[in-house]
């Protein structure tokens, strides 16, 4: 599964399920199930990002520190943005904002993957010519 986009995009899709469940769910057991799915998907995405950040480097500890700083900043800014949106826009606005961010992140990752595949194929064709 390493260096393949499908598992990570799948985890991002799995993150959308509990967000929509929170937006549209109405009972406590549904919210508990959403929390479990969210935890599993987030855990997979977190560990994957940590692996990819450190895998191709001799300075793994530096890469891991950078990863943790970025995650901490994202959590801090995300909590502030969520609080602001929840207070000033509406109770469900933070969840819709998260849906937009996850979709945008997935599209960006797919675009990067597509561009890198194109460049690899182009480089191989130039090397064969």
Q: Report how far the terminal alpha carbons are from each other.
A: 32 Å
Classification by helices and strands:
mainly alpha
Overall body shape: elongated
Q: What series of H and E elements makes up the topology?
A: HHHH
Estimate percent helicity.
over 70%
- Report the strand count: 0
Average pLDDT rating: 88
Major sheet summary line = none
What is the subunit arrangement here? single chain
Percent of residues in β-strands: under 5%
Number of helices: 4
What integer value in Å does the Rg equal?
A: 18 Å
Low-confidence stretches: none
What do you see in this structure?
- The two termini are 32 Å apart.
- The radius of gyration is 18 Å and the shape is elongated.
- Helix 1 runs antiparallel to helix 2, helix 1 packs antiparallel against helix 4 and helix 3 packs antiparallel against helix 4.
- With 129 residues, the chain is mainly α.
- 88% of the residues lie in helices and 0% in strands.
Topology, element by element:
Elements (H helix, E strand, L loop, with lengths): L4 H20 L3 H28 L4 H29 L4 H36 L1
Helix pairs in contact: 1-2, 1-4, 2-3, 3-4
